[in-house]
Design a protein that fits this description.
The complex is a heterodimer.
Chain A (H helix, E strand, L loop, with lengths): L1 E3 L6 E3 L5 H4 L7 H10 L4 E5 L3 H9 L22 E5 L4 H13 L5 E5 H6 L20 E3 L6 H16 L3 H9 L1 H7 L2 E2 L5 E2 L2
Parallel strand pairs in A: 3-4, 4-5, 5-6
Antiparallel strand pairs in A: 1-2, 7-8
Chain B lengths: L5 H9 L5 H11 L8 E3 L2 E6 L5 H10 L5 E9 L7 E9 L4 E9 L5 E3 L8 H12 L2 E3 L29 E3 L3 E3 L9 E2 L7 H4 L2 E2 L5
Parallel strand pairs in B: 2-5, 6-7
Antiparallel strand pairs in B: 1-2, 3-4, 4-5, 8-9, 10-11
The chains are: A alpha/beta, B alpha+beta.
Chain lengths: ~200, ~210
Amino acid sequence: MSAIVPATGRSVSEVGYNSKIEGEVIHTRLDSAINWFRQNSLWPMPMGLACCAIELMAAGASRFDISRFGSEVMRFSPRQSDVMIVAGTVTYKMALAVRRIYEQMTEPKWVIAMGACASTGGMYRSYAVLQGVDNIVPVDVYIAGCPPRPEALLDAIIKLQGKVAKEPFLRDWKKDAGPEKYGRLGIELGEKGEVIPS
Amino acid sequence: MKLSSDRDLAQHLYHPVPTPQELANQLRATFPDLLSVATEFRGEVTLTVLDAEQILSVCAGAREQLGFDMLLDLSSVDNLGDDPRWTVVYELYSVAHGAHLRLKTQLSEERSELPSVVPVWRTADWHEREAYDMMGIRFRGHPDLRRILMWDGYPYFPLRKDFPLAGKPTELPEVAFTRSAPLEGGPFVTVPTQGGSIQREPRARNPEA
């Protein structure tokens, strides 16, 4: 950065990063940094379909306090959410809506199947109930229980954070987006997805 | 009428309220050829309408002349193997009289159609849609006879006795799909018994075996 000091007309140069003000520099990989941002700010899409949603609400309220894990911002719009928590029985009639809402969520997105019904159909061995939401959307974490305690949901959030932290983000991105996207960002990737310094 | 207290007695003397049995007899007097003798079981009075085609006029009479201003429920029964196969049941209630009345009518599988009672009670709308959705009974004159629980385009009527609990596989691209649910030896059902909890417990009972 540079600025013109009006009184003297001299150009004064400043360093881009002032460690006295902003602290020490952390060296990390871009993957890790991005995953760190993501994992601590998972915004849930509460797909509450049955009694599991009551436990989901309890997890969001003060006693269990999901905000300790960065997930308190429940968005009822799929376009603003990262993780869909399917809490409850998915009937075939609702399955189409669940699938559609999942498709409306922007990447990156994850799914938690909360409780027995969402995971496997649960006790509803019936013509009306989808036997596990993994028939229509890719599930990242399954939670056992009927319904699971809020602690189990918090555990699933933590497990999902661990999964997000290990995602080879740049490699996947390269696979999906192709080289032209990276050209725009000025990033070049090696065979294993590592960043090649230019 | 059972008068269990002085208050009941006083109310009965000063404001005589017709009993369900009396109301049923009045309805029968209006439609003598259409209604069977009223049967009473545990205080509940049931009339059978002999011709399902006349159910609308009987219901209209029950409402207009006898004050049955509520339709509490409309349900259907599948008597698989019997003829006629369907029984349609109407649960009426009169707020003014505090009286319940049940109307039943039989319907053959070939017809599977009877007049809608939506003109008499608007609440019949969704009840009849449910009966249509689950049992496949059509209600003539219904304003909007669509499925209500399953989705449009579902090819079966799942509450019929010959429909398996596990469901049937359907593949309807762009509409929906279903698969048979794994029952793992089920369905697990109870049977009426005088026995203890071991006999009462739900068990796999294969009807064919």
